[in-house]
Structure prediction request, 687 residues.
Amino acid sequence: MILALLIGLLFLAGGVLIALMLYCYKHRDIALARPLGLLLLCAAFLPITHALNLMTETLWLKIFLLQIRFLAVPFLAVFQLIFILTYLRREEWIQGWKKVSLFIIPIMTVILAQTTWFHPLYRYDYWVDLSGPLPILNFTNGIGFQVHVAYSHILLIASLLLLIFVQPEIHAFYRRQRLLLLAALLLPLLCDLQYQLNLTPYPGLTLTPFALMFTGLVFVGATLRQGLLEVAPVARGKVIEEMSSPMLVIDARGRMTDMNTAAVRLLGTVHDDAIGSPADLVLAGHPSVLALAQGASGDNREIAIGEGLERQFFDVAVDDLRTGTGAVIGKLVLLQNITERKQAEEALKESEEKYRTIIENMQDLFYRTDLDGTITMISPSGVALAGYGSPEEMIGVTMQELYADPLERERFLVALRANGAVGGYPLVLKMKDGTLKHVTVNGHFFTDAEGSVRGVEGIIHDVTDLHLAEQALRQANRQLNLMSSITRHDILNQLTVLLGNLSFAQEEAPEGPLSGYLEKMSIAAGTIQRQIEFTRDYQDLGVRAPEWQRVSGAIRAATAGGLPIIDETDGLAIYADPMLVKVFANLMDNTIRHAESATRVHLRYRPEENGDLTLVWEDDGVGVPAGEKERIFDRGFGKNTGLGLFLIREILAITGITIAERGEPGEGARFEMRVPPRAFRFDSEAV
Prediction:
């Protein structure tokens, strides 16, 4: 009957310890729960193996169960010490190799216990005593077991001393909790000493498993259940002393009774000298703080302390300190440093003033619209440009009303979405009185603090005068072209007459010195004729405004009948002179004339890190000699007129596009055209 009762109670203790361990595992995100859970797991081995040991009389089985027990029991004291240090927030005392060294003796104990069959270092002379009410396993302890016991008791005593002497002056609530933890630590130690001295009710019976169950219940209840993990006993003093906000405590008699380190630094006083002194003396150099401290509770306000660069701003809160019965025993003065906030507010105010000044005085038009295109902000210059009376009159007007072509608004948004921003985008706007203005727009989407797009903002530059000047220049160019065309026609007529007469002269003097001169004159006249005819194709260079042109379309129009082309520019449009077709036509003519072995042309593009785009024309011919890569663009260089590549560079330069030859001699020519960001896009709107 006694045996069955003991076995049941031991299993109950083991079950309670396992349940507590699982509770700790559930709260494993809390630092203290981890060492406590391991401690409870090791403790559960003791009652369970002890119960199983009492259930058998077989010697080898009892020894085996004892070995299982000592897989965990040697680590009890170690995890108990780690638990106490974690509770006291002193984990740094056993970091790194120090923590590892704590496990050396327990690991050696486990090894000795598991190999007890082969040596007497741990225990030996095992035998079973069946003379009493309990089947007791007797043995003789070796030196290894004695070392284990001594080491465990040292760690247990160290845990007790830590609880007693680390941060002893704490709140009464935490003192009561610490006394409870001390009792829970001391009980297993006393039970183990009782067992070692054979002072148990029955020989061989140890009460330590029941003591460990009590210890586990106390540890879990006093820490996890009562929230001591989140509110550590050592936290209060640490928080008060390390807080950045100055704190003062003044009693009902006007004496300074406490101040933290931040207050000492601010007031420039000595802590020990200030405590107990009248507050009006301690705060004599800071009348604004003294006035608040002597004023009514709840009188919160902003004050400034110091001068010049050392000037600081504080938000001061004053509260009464009361007893449990409500009697006022003093005041708590808390100063929150708001210097950075005040400086930020001043900087923001200054920035807003500068921003407003810039907006109000800028000559270009600054605007901002919401996602629907409704104007929400406009600069005074924009009001004057559009012909309205005031900014308020334009707020609420939709941008579609200002476009000469409403469809251009959607094209502008397409370009904006494609690139995130646009620069120098040409538009025609309609003013309030119906007049048209030619402008360029630099715009982008603006976002709120969360990064969500809220609308469009940008700067509009009026280029109407420039547009009119360009139109006048184009008209003058057209007139010059007309005169040039007439002159060219007359010159070609005269050249035809000259070439005819030279031909007759050569027939009349087929031999002799005169025939050589006539031949040279004929060749020179033919060259003049080809050069004049060549200029006919380029008489409109720069006359018409640049426009967006689809590269693939220009290629097809320029190279029909030439070499096969691999075109990888689908969707790419560039802003160039209308004579862009001539660029590709001349490149194809150059490839055919100078790269006799070429079989194909490859056209592709690549983006550059600075935002440019490089359009690449390359063939598989003989390439360009290294010494001629730059000279081929000079006027007059080449086998035909010497103007083909020269004019290519001039056509592209109108919109800021550059061209250079980068191929490897012997591996084909490669012409690279560098297009600036504002002169290319990917859409289907270009012609």
